[in-house]
Amino acid sequence: MEMEMQKEKLVADERRTLAYAADHFTVDGVGAFIDELANEHKFLAIFVFATAAAPETAINLDVATVNSRIAKLGNFPAIQSLSNVPLHRDWELLLPVYIRGRRAALLNRRNIPPGEEPSQVYLDRNARPFTLDKVNAAFSRLSKKLGLPIPIELETIAWVVAKQSMLERLMLQQHEPSFRRH
């Protein structure tokens, strides 16, 4: 009996692994999950969805780095340089618009002077930098509310998008004509 319970626990733990999640969630499913997120977390999730960036990279991304890359490279190459997957052209303004729009408005509402603002791009509703634990806890609560079999975390989003990108590249390679010299 105890052996069966241990086996069931192992199966339950395995089902919660990232690999399991990446295999059982689709890009569309992850997109639908992001649509349900509160605005506080939505833009961070969209960035990870667009770029497949590692969660730690996304959470710790700072405004100075983004602005420096945009100044040196331009919008699209700057955002592509932060991405782990080929980026769609529509995403090139993702960070500049967020930084100059929503983030600036949040800081203004919280009366945070420019010299005292946090360096991170993504901030919570109190204008404090996110932590991965807090973001994943919020995602877990939403996953439970939506009745998902396993919780979606920020890393799940990155893995699902990276996997889909890899599959798309493989499909393209299979359909490219091969040219041989005779």
Task: Write structural notes for this entry.
The protein has 182 residues and is an all-alpha fold. The protein has one domain (18-161). Helix content is 66%, strand content 0%. It has 10 helices and no strands. The chain has helices at 2-15, 18-24, 27-36, 39-51, 55-60, 63-73, 75-81, 94-109, 132-145, 154-175. It is globular and about 60 Å long. The termini are far apart. The relative contact order is 0.17.
What attributes does this structure have?
single chain, 182 residues, mainly alpha, 10 helices, 0% strand
Give a quick precis of the structure.
The protein is an all-alpha fold.
Summarize model confidence as the mean pLDDT.
Answer: 85
Poorly predicted residue ranges: none
Shape type: globular
Oligomer: single chain
Please summarize the sheet with the most strands: none
- How many helices? 10
What's the β-strand tally?
0
Distance between the terminal alpha carbons, to the nearest Å?
Answer: 67 Å
Radius of gyration: 19 Å
| Count of domain modules | 1
Helix content: 55-70%
In N-to-C order, the SSE pattern is HHHHHHHHHH
Class computed from helices, strands and strand pairing: mainly alpha
- Beta-strand content: under 5%
